[in-house]
Amino acid sequence: MTAYDFTIELFCRVDDVLKEQTKHVLAQLYPSEVVTLGLLQALRGEGNCAFYRWVEKELATLFPRLPERTRLFRLFVQFENLCQQFLAQPTLFGVADSFGIELVHPWRERRTQREVARKGLSNHRWIVGAKLAVVTDDCGQIVGFQVKGANVHDTAFHTLIETWKETMIVLADQGFKAQDPAPKKKAQGKKKKAKQTQGDEAEEVLPTGPLAPTNPVNLKICPKGQWNERMIVETVFSLFTSVLHLKKLTHRLLAPLQARLAYTCAAFNLCTAWNGEVKLQLASFAL
Questions:
Q1: Strand pairing of 203-205 and 118-122?
Q2: Where in the chain are the domains?
Q3: Average pLDDT of 122-134?
Q4: Does this model's pTM top 0.70?
Q5: Is the confidence at residue 186, as pLDDT, over 80?
Q6: R_g over Cα of the chain
């Protein structure tokens, strides 16, 4: 299937889901067209300038009213919330894990205060970027996601897991386990008065600081070698890296990065369930 034919079929599937979305009277593109272009960029896995040149060259007849480049990518951020309609429904069991994304070179860290990139660990090595946490169903389809700086711990994504505390049990590794609160220690104080006997000593409880956050009720921490069904999320991350080229991006601000990841998750769900049956294969959709 050529890129031209694939774009037409992709637009038809997107428009069936977003058929209730109306076009603004001054807009040049329908919401379905904007979402389709966002999905195409996620599948190509390239930067903004390269993707815009490709659309002008290959799909000019399909999008004759294509807006200017910067305006188009602002529209991607504006219609990012429509990607929520392409996320999968929760199942009885799900899997959660985090994925590190490199955004800038370490020498360019904190050039501006607005950038989302932070220094953190990913796959046992240092990166300057962001961390994407995804929750998948038992088939590998993405149910939800959240993005934060790479310097946060995996427990910062507990709020994402708590979203389905009534409907889904989420399996995760030891990185999502909240630290057990430190036991209270007791210390012996000084004698209150000189008249007290030698054995009469006051006891004082040392401050232990704020307690560590607790695990969500629907989170199940899986030790290494157990519940290997959660390895399905590693297949998802492998497709993110090899086909969607998500390991290295060039976004600096949170809003464009979150929009890019939203379109990526939506494109992943659409393509893996293209024929009605979920198959974790994306090689045939690489443009």
A1: unpaired
A2: 3-85, 88-178+214-253
A3: 91
A4: yes
A5: no
A6: 24
Q: Write out the chain in H/E/C secondary structure.
A: CCHHHHHHHHHHHHHHHCCCCCCCCCCCCCHHHHHHHHHHHHHHCCCHHHHHHHHHHHCCCCCCCCCCHHHHHHHHHHCHHHHHHHCCCCCCEEEEEEEEEECCCHHHCCCCCCCCCEEEEECCEEEEEEEEEEEECCCCCEEEEEEEECCCCHHHHHHHHHHHCCCCEEEECHHHCCCCCCCCCEEECCCCCCCCCCCCCCEEECCCCCCCCCCCCCEEECCCCCCHHHHHHHHHHHHHHHCCCCCECCCCCHHHHHHHHHHHHHHHHHHHCCCCCCCCCCHHHCC
User: In the prediction, which pLDDT does 187 show?
Assistant: 47
Residue with tokens 């490199």: 102
Question: Which fold is adopted by the domain 88-178+214-253?
Answer: Nucleotidyltransferase; domain 5 (3.30.420)
Q: What are phi and psi of 28, to 5 degrees?
A: -95, -25
Give residue for tokens 């399996």: 171
